[in-house]
Amino acid sequence: MKALYRRLGHKGLISLGIIVAALAALGTLPFWLDVDASYTGYYLFITCVYLTVAQGWNLIAGYTGQISLGTHAFFGLGAYTMAGLWLNGIGLYFFFDVTLMVVAGIAPAIVASIIGLLLLSRLKGDYLSFGTLGLAQIVYVLFVKGGKITGGANGIYLDASYFSSMRVYYWVALLVAVLATLAVWLLTRSSFGLALKAIREDDISAASHGVNVLKYKVLAFAMSAFLAGLAGSIYGYYLFHLEPASVFNMNWLFYPILMVVLGGTGTIIGPVIGSLICSALFAYGDIYFGGYHPIFSGFLIILVMRFMPGGIMGLVSKAPALWRKKEGAVATTTPE
Amino acid sequence: MASPLLEVRNLSVSYGDVRALFGVSLTVEEGLIVALVGSNGAGKSTLLKAVSGLIYPTEGEILFEGEDLGRTSIRHRVNKGIVQVPEGRRLFPNLTVHENLKLGAYLPRTRAGYKDSLERVFSLFPVLRERQNGKAGLLSGGEQQMLAIGRAVMAQPRLIMIDEASLGLSPILTMAIFDLITTLHQQGTTILMIEQNVNMALKHCNKAYVMSTGHIVMSGTGEELLANEELRKAYLGRRAVTGNQGSGS
Question: How many domains would you assign to chain A?
């Protein structure tokens, strides 16, 4: 305990305590709450799916500074990869098969590497945005027009008799979201993460210190695609019926972005807070405003961008300085 | 004179159709401070970029310790010990001072001696030790310049190329930075510096080249050039004669 205290300090120990307590509570939740009957079960499940995507986007955009707008393509590719492999009898158990899920992450990661090498080699950031958006459109149309291979606009059906309880979904999504967050956290604390942050700040300066900019950008992009694909495969298991309109939906692009930006871009805990808040808002929005709630999420993006570009974490880091009302000593709302 | 560490031979560089350098040649011997002076647009920064590998020459060659650098990567050159302190410092503003220094020693070759390099930087610039956990962007202009130089020192350079160290600094800070560059030189680092502050640069160097519109028009020791009437008229104006610092052209 003493050694731990020396390593982490006062603040670190409190944070660690909160994290352990929260994980213990979330992990055991299905034992004291009926996740099938309560909406909380679905809410936390979908939050975890979003969070996994959001941490991926956080890695490429928040830490590396490359705005990708193709997340929904990777999400859908992940879902379809899983479903395609399952239908063709590849894998061990088919239902929440770890190998299928990993492959569902690798497939979009390969696509991202190829497109990343093309778009990131010479062009500056904006082109990645347009390029990935274009890629998403291409992929979407390919799947709609894919005929028998992709099931066209009707998509493909999986055997829904596997569904037994929300519990499995809850645990798998939670575990993946926690692992994704942990992985991104560890990455950003490594020398690899330092290189990513340096690229975000000034890529030419990073290059002039020997950082292989293209390699790191592509790697970060591939990892973010991996997480999106992984999340897509979990959602695919939940849907049982995959159609382009649902898994390639732009929501899988905009919602994770909103969650990251609201929580705090380039921070590790920001996307967690952002996804918890946003999923709750969308759930209530759906109940009270029906089909109109995307309007509110759109407004939310605009308001957050305008008034709190550092997100909630930015406000948190600013709070002590505001409290002391120190002139000119207000911390900037910048990423960690 | 010592053996040449860097030798630039007949170097030409073009940006598209626009030629920036016309057959420039210079040598930097090991253990010297060499200054490259001249007005805006003379091609000084272009020359530095060509040496560090940010742009490739259209003609001529760059030799480092006798090896032709050709079209080798920036990474290769940093690994050989050619490190640049870029114009405008180009720090990573949202990263801490410590992280900035860590990035200076990013390559495997330099990571081994990381702790020693860090101590060396902190003893050169004690203020950086105090502020190591603060964001680089919150440092003052002078401190930022120190960090930029410190970051270059972290790379355990054989040759440091400093682009406009005095840019945007007050006269007092400019003097402080030049003193630090001198200290660095005394510790055994070879330095190639670009300056618009011709007076200060000539006073602090062993050897200098004067550039104009992509050509080297004059060269010699600092004292020789300071005494040169033509150069004084062109770059120093009256202020240098009265002993104040000239701000270049």
Answer: 1
